[in-house]
Known about the structure:
77% helix
Amino acid sequence: MSYNxxxxxxxxxxxxxxDESELELVTNFLIAADEDMLSDYNNTCxxxxxxxxxELYLEILSTLLVVxxxxxxxxxxxxxxxKMSEALQIINKKTI
Length: 96
């Protein structure tokens, strides 16, 4: 999953102009990110307003969480929360 995908996901979600297949695609890709990918995001800083790309990843997950909470799709919310927790653990490892 590239940085470009994160930017595209941000644009799609923030404009609120997405269909079900786009939402599902973004959700599946973000939830499928493994620890290696999250670590790569943590060690990369593409946008200067973030300390690293993992912060952008977390911001996108937060937006997704709101979308799915509004839809009352709590199983997906739980998956998103778990992935957020995993990402936060990686960030905390680096700062300790």
